[in-house]
Design a protein that fits this description.
Blueprint lengths: L2 H10 L4 H9 L2 H8 L10 E4 L9 H18 L1 H6 L1 E5 L5 H14 L4 E3 L6 H10 L4 E5 L8 E7 L8 H13 L15 E3 L2 H11 L6 H7 L5 E4 L5 H12 L4 E3 L25 H10 L3 E5 L6 E6 L5 E3 L2 H18 L7 E6 L5 H8 L3 E5 L3 H14 L3 E7 L3 E3 L9 H17 L4 H12 L1 E10 L5 H14 L4 E2 L2 E8 L4 E4 L4 E3 L8 E5 L4 E6 L5 E10 L2 H20 L1
Helix pairs in contact: 4-6, 4-8, 7-9, 11-16, 13-14
Length: 567
């Protein structure tokens, strides 16, 4: 079926008024882009631009994917239907509407639904699936994407994002639907139960256990002054409760960004990875001479931070720096109170810094590397619980996602918020700043610096162009990057590592379209097409004996790789 055939079907369908109006206004090029494919359902569900078409997020596509999920649950039996699905949503446009549509489709199948009446964070959705022993969860969010986007994330019974087999079942189910405009919905929502306070309280009770040193908080928590911004999203309601129950009360909320607004009017992107998203909070902090700034993204699964320096300016920390500081604080505290297990492990992604890994190693703690996507960290947690070979201590991704305790099985900015405030109290008691603590760790373990560069491949041919570029790199052996020899090449698609002598070994991770190059000085480079956006991501991680040397390496490696990518 051509995109023109699909377009014609939509033109004849009884669409909501807003989609009908938009459809009439599309140019021929816009029609092709909106209908040339179904919006891909990938590692974390669907995410994309809101609007009319199969390559967009709208009520029709939400209905279609929910019907496919319902068919998968039907096939899994009555127990799965009774266990049901938990649904939550964020502050984006149409999020509540999409959550209600999903509820009605599931209810039409007789599947139990637990739905929040108002917006909640992604980590609370993950926790709730586990707490209620539900079969699945749906989170309506586009996380940190721009305002024009929305998304549909699906979770399995363990509270982690769906495993590949279940994802494929949903993809197959979408293809099996003959008429997406005739999917039944139960307007009475007979199987839907609204859940709010009980799950909030259960989640907050678990978050309360995050604190490592309650005596420290009682001593320093009231004096610690910081600024918190939820970036117009879900973090404020639960985040404030979590901070207050831990003992932190001397904070200021960024008033303008506490307003729930899917237009995110105060930022270009509601993404704590972007230093610009913290600008308004830093202005607040300067006026109040606050010790730090913390920010959560719209669905509160990512946390960013900036810390005050001696001259009164603020340094925005990277996700890898935040993770390194957290790992050091946690492990030092556990060692001090003699609760550090002999088989302790942290889990991180193959494109995250080695900084936290080196810190963990100094405490005798192992690091296990998984593919990008927090569901792989969740799967490793489940493996630890089953095999008892390791004790989970911390998980993170470089993209500002952290998980302290696995009562949620996805990155959790609410947990991170509490632990980061506690770390600030720890450094304050020592008469140090975060910058002082970070410098100490660099001097002990090496100066680590990382950068991620995204190359856009939009439009109909974008995915083909990315695929061709990855093929080019696989066919052309990379010998050097900057002035460094490539010692080993890891191709996660073939699950092989080949060193300079030609020796080959198998990689333990599942297959994935990722290339990683290990350099002679311990630095590394990785190439990975995004699973949710039409972007090719270049990851660079360097290690050096000084900050200046690390910065120089980073610039050199980026220039080399950008030249090769654009050649």
């Amino acid at each position: 079926m051509t995109y023109q055939d699909t377009l014609a079907r939509w033109q004849q369908a009884d669409l909501p008024a807003d989609l009908t109006a938009e459809l009439k206004q599309l140019s021929p090029a816009e029609q092709e882009d909106a209908f040339y494919q179904n919006l891909p359902f990938g590692t974390a569900g669907m995410r994309g631009q809101m609007g009319v078409g199969t390559n967009r997020i709208n009520v029709v596509m939400v209905t279609l994917v929910t019907e496919a999920l319902a068919a998968y649950i039907d096939q899994s039996g009555d127990a799965a239907k009774k266990a049901g699905v938990v649904i939550a949503f964020d502050s984006r446009h149409h999020s509540k509407e999409f959550a209600q549509v999903a509820s009605r489709v599931l209810s039409a199948h007789g599947i139990k639904v637990y739905r929040f009446s108002s917006l909640r964070p992604t980590p609370e959705l993950s926790f709730s699936v586990r707490h209620l022993k539900a079969f699945a969860g749906i989170m309506i969010t586009a996380s940190h994407n721009p305002k024009q986007d929305n998304g549909y994330k699906v979770y399995g019974a363990d509270g982690g994002q769906m495993v590949p087999e279940a994802v494929q079942a949903v993809i197959d189910g979408m293809a099996a639907v003959e008429n997406e405009f005739a999917i039944a919905q139960d307007e009475t929502e007979k199987t839907v139960q609204v859940v709010d306070d009980d799950l909030d309280n259960a989640y907050l009770a678990e978050v309360k256990t995050i604190s490592v040193d309650q005596d420290l908080i009682q001593k320093e928590g009231a004096d610690l002054k910081f600024v918190y911004t939820p970036l117009h999203g879900t973090g404020q309601y639960i985040g404030e409760k979590a901070l207050q129950q831990a003992g932190f009360t001397n904070y200021t909320i960024v008033k303008e960004q506490a307003e729930l607004d899917g237009d995110f009017p105060t930022v270009k992107k509601p993404n704590p990875e972007d230093p610009a998203a913290l600008s308004l909070a830093i202005e607040y902090a300067k006026k109040e001479e606050a010790d730090l700034v913390v920010a959560t993204d719209p669905d509160a699964d990512r946390m960013g931070a900036a810390v005050r320096l001696a001259d009164g300016s603020y340094q925005v920390l990277s996700g890898n720096q935040i993770a390194g500081l957290m790992v050091n604080y946690l492990l030092a505290a556990k060692k001090k109170n003699q609760t550090l297990p002999e088989n302790g492990a942290i889990v991180t992604s193959i494109v995250s810094s080695r900084f936290a890994s080196e810190i963990a190693k100094s405490y005798g703690v192992a690091t296990l590397d998984v593919l990008t996507g927090f569901k792989y960290i969740a799967a490793m947690i489940d493996r630890f619980e089953e095999k008892k070979d390791y004790t989970y201590l911390f998980g993170f991704e470089e993209s500002f996602g952290y998980l302290v305790k696995p009562f949620a099985h996805d990155k959790d900015a609410i947990q991170a918020l509490v632990l980061f405030a506690e770390m600030a109290a720890y450094y304050k008691e020592k008469g140090q700043s975060f910058a002082d603590g970070l410098k100490e760790l660099y001097e002990q373990h090496g100066y680590f610096e990382e950068k991620t560069v995204a190359f856009d491949f939009p439009g109909v041919n974008g995915h083909e162009e990315m695929a061709a570029l990855m093929t080019k790199f696989r066919n052309q052996k990379l010998e050097t990057v900057g002035d460094q020899l490539v010692l080993a090449t890891q191709d996660f698609a073939s699950q092989t590592q080949i060193d300079r002598a030609g020796s080959e070994k198998k990689l333990p991770q599942p297959k994935a379209n990722v290339l990683k190059y290990w350099l002679a000085d311990g630095s590394w480079i990785a190439l990975r097409p995004s699973g949710t956006e039409p972007k090719l991501k270049l990851y660079i991680g360097v290690v050096a004996d000084s900050q200046a040397e690390a910065d120089a390496k980073l610039q050199s490696f980026e220039a080399t790789m950008e030249e090769k990518i654009k050649a």
